[in-house]
Amino acid sequence: MKWLQHLFTSKKTRHRQVAGSLEMVYFEEVDRETMRALMHFPLFQKGRIRNRRISHFTHQYDLSRQTDAYIFDYRYVRGGKTRNQTVFWAISDDLNLPWFAMEPQQFRHTFVKILGRKEIEFDLWPTFNRNYWIEGVDPQAVQYVFGDEVPEFFNKEPGWSVEGYGNQFVLTKLHKRISPEDRPWLLDTGRSVLDRLVPRGKGNLV
After folding, report:
1. Beta-bridge partner residues of 97
2. Which residues contact 43 (CB under 8 A, 6 or more apart)?
3. Burial track 15-37 (b if 16+ CB lie within 10 A, e otherwise)
4. The pTM is what?
5. DSSP codes joined into one string, 46-108
6. Could you tell me the sign of the dihedral formed by the alpha carbons of 92, 95, 98, 102, in that order?
7. Is 117 helix (H, G, I), strand (E, B) or coil?
8. What is the pLDDT of residues 84-124, one digit of tens each?
9. 66, 155, 160, 169: which could join 164 in a potential S-S bond, CB 3.0 to 4.6 Å?
C-alpha cells in the first residue's frame, strides 16, 4: 500500500525519487545567490529574512520550451504565523513580461482599493475579475500579455497566485505546501501557464 510506503520513507527520499522521475536535479537547500534572485518577487520579501527558508529545491531545463523550471518548498513567518507553500519558478528567454502580481480575491482587497490601489480588470471575464486580484505597473501591458488565454485558464483553476516580471514568473497555491507526489501536477500547471504567457509576452515591453 502506498500509505505504508510513505510511512517508512523519509520526505527527502520521496522528493529525490519524484525529482528523478521528472528528470529534475534535487538540492536539499539553495545558495544565497538563488535566494537573492527570488527577492525580486514580493512573495520572497515577506517576513524576516532569518525566518525564510527554501528546501527540496529541484531544477529541470525544459529543452522544448527553452526554459529553466524549478519547484521548491518555501517557508516564512509573518505576524507570528508560519506560512508554507510549494512554488513553481520559470525563467525563459521567450518571456518579456511587465511586472504584475495576481492572487485570489480576499477581504483585505476591499480596503486597499479604498486606499487607492488600482486593480486590473478584464472586461470579457467577470468571473475571473471576481476570483482574482491583479495589479501591475502598466495595466494595459498586463492586459495584453494575459489576453484571453490566461483568464480562461484561471477561470477553471481557482486559488492560485502568480507574480511575474521580465523573463520569469512564480506560481503557487496560496499558503499551500503540496506533497512530493503532487509535484508532477504542479510542473504541468506551471508549463500550462508558461505556454499561455509566452505567445503574447514575447517581445512585450516591460
Report:
1. 166
2. 74, 87, 161, 163, 170, 172
3. bbebbeebebebbeebeeebeee
4. 0.88
5. SS-GGG-EEEEEEEEEETTTTEEEEEEEEEEEETTEEEEEEEEEEEETT--EEEEEEEE--TH
6. negative
7. coil
8. 999 999 999 999 999 999 999 765 546 566 555 678 889 99
9. 169
